[in-house]
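Example record for the data management plan.
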Amino acid sequence: MDHAQPQDRVSHPFTVTNRLVLSIALPMTLAYLTTPLLGIADTAIVGQYGDAALLGGLAAGAIVFDVVFTTFNFLRSGTTGLVAQAYGQGNALEEQAVLWRALLVALAAGVLVVLLGPFVIAGGVYFMGAEPEVAAAMRAYVSIRILAAPVSLINYAILGYVLGRGEGVLGLVLQFILNGTNIALSMFLALSLGWGIEGVAWGTVGGEAVGMLTGFAVLAWRFRRGPRVSLRRVFDTPRIVRMVAMNGDIMIRSFSLLAAFALFTRQGAQFGTVTLAANAILMNFFLVAGYFLDGTATAAEQLAGRAVGARYRPAFLRSLRLTVAWGFGLAIAMSLFLLLAGEALIAFITTAQDVRMAANTFLPWAALISISGVLAFQMDGVFIGATWSRDMRNTMLLSFALYLACLFFLTRSFGNHGLWAAFHILLIVRGISLFAIVPSRMRRTFAE
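Corresponding structural encoding:
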């Protein structure tokens, strides 16, 4: 099914410039960086206890959390693409309707996740197969943090709406408030009050709640005078079918990527607690690099979606070229930074000498992964904005199958080095396969 079928077939020309790209990319780069910095802060807080089992439990718990909740990341990315296309059409009522549909799905999905919490925890403990001390820490972390599910998913929908309109600065403010509150609460509860890993989990719950309330306040102020979208439009069947189909594809793609992360962590656990903790620290570096690149990917989402909605091919081509160029430039800069500063960052995060030594050994793999993954990040942005979700799903499944094969053979021969090599291969194949599809999809979309 082709999901890129704008209702308005009248062209709405607009110009894509470096300034327009950066007006979205720069604030959102800063905004996204607060999320992995949050992961590093949590790791650093727990790392002050000098217990590798607690670090491993935090890493394993974060993976469980991501597998459950980031599977619903379509509530952010899917909303961005649909709102951007409505924005390109100049259809303010449809922008609102997309938001309300996403909020309803977020609330229902979040409540369901909370109800399934005990099964999620049991499944996570079984899947990770970690040592008893690691499993106990993971159980304590997930059982608290999972309570924030409805609030977290609502925040995804609100951010998706904001980014779909290209409002990068507002997105930055919302993310800064959410993650800043999270870090402050986690430090206070875990270190000042001595709540340990439970304090970090409760800090996350509090930060998500404050972020949601701020987002609703912004929406209430924005919609207080404008036209109100009708319930009939919100529950428009063809549009809901389109949204569900697209979100299903994105969910499969996201789940496959999260499964790759989970298998990476699980395989690291088989190499021992020290290697698991070292990989957890280095994976935070990768997340920093990934979120650093997500700024330009978000610009690609908004501008590609807007161009499809406006039915204006020149803007689409220009947004593709500029966002990819900026993405590669930032990826190279990030890799150089991590190669130079990585050992100092590792020493800051953990006091455990054995974990430091292991992390330093595998640092180059983590430092260079932003270059391996930049094309995949940028193409994700383009395909989400254009709502070419079926292709995203198919290329992700292909890349994941290759990753599994590499995981099996490379780890047997090269241990943890092989594990990192397999992850690089996953990202490279995804980027190249998506890029190869762009010309044919573009011809179809702008010929309709």
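Summary line stored alongside the record: Confidence is low (pLDDT under 50) at residues 1-7.
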